[in-house]
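Predict fold of Release factor glutamine methyltransferase; 295 aa.
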Amino acid sequence: MTRELGAAVRAATARLADAGVPSPEADAVALAAHVLGTSAAEVRKAMVLGRAAPDGYETLVDERARRVPLQHLTGRAGFRGIELRVGPGVFTPRPETELVAGLAVEAARVVAAGGASPVVVDLCTGSGAIALAVKDEVPGAQVHAVELSPDAYAWALANRDALALDVDVRLGDATEAFDDLLGAVDVVVSNPPYIPAGMEPVDPEVRDHDPGVALYGGDPTGLAIPLVVAARAARLLRAGGRLLMEHADTQGGTLPARLRATGQWRDVVDHVDLNGRPRATSAVRSTARSAEEPA
Ligand SMILES: C[S@@+](CC[C@H](N)C(=O)[O-])C[C@H]1O[C@@H](n2cnc3c(N)ncnc32)[C@H](O)[C@@H]1O
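Predicted 3D structure, encoded as tokens:
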């Protein structure tokens, strides 16, 4: 017997709630929208009109109840003004990362307002989310991005090509990338791996589906990798250039303090997200070089 869409979505919502999915109704509607090839608003209208549930819907709901990320099931993740393709092998872009991307957009716009073409580098680009959003919002910027994981790199290339955004995406290690841009960059932005070693994420979507190389910051503070990425940013930035780096909400004191201690940065400021949680640090490359810094 054909089931009505409204009943199917309500049953899916209850099922996802039982499975501990944080936003069960929104996910139930999003999956229906995906199968129907339409928007959430159209799904809600079709529910009221008593339309039939589409074939294949319950299979997707089963997978979501097993905590496969919604974005892996739809193959898509919205990020600021763009939509990215995502799936196994790449970190799913998060809404909270829109903050650090927005700070990079602002910094690039300040350079562009002065008449120059801003040079922007995204270290640890994953799906390409930040780099592609910056290019989308500041079309005059020269945007470069690097990613270590070949799987994630392939997703970044696919996203660049699908969005037709002219971004230089490279496969490599962010801690030694872009020898051709030393001292020439206006803005470095990064969402590096920063979860403290040994601290396993609670959400199965993260623990079981985001690649480990995207998550763990390399030591019990979670700051080992972010700090070597920041050291590379210091080599890439011109004096007065700006670093924007995302961090865990527990690192809003430690990351700024560790950056200040290098002597390479001034105007180190921490930023909170929409929920008031410390989420990103900005810093300006100072002209003074620290004693241990290579010339
Ligand atoms: C937290 S994810 C962020 C991805 C993307 N920037 C975003 O915000 O959605 C960190 C990314 O850094 C990559 N990564 C880890 N170590 C790296 C390194 N040494 N050099 C370049 N990329 C690295 C991981 O593979 C992963 O894609």
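The chain is about 40% helix and 20% strand.
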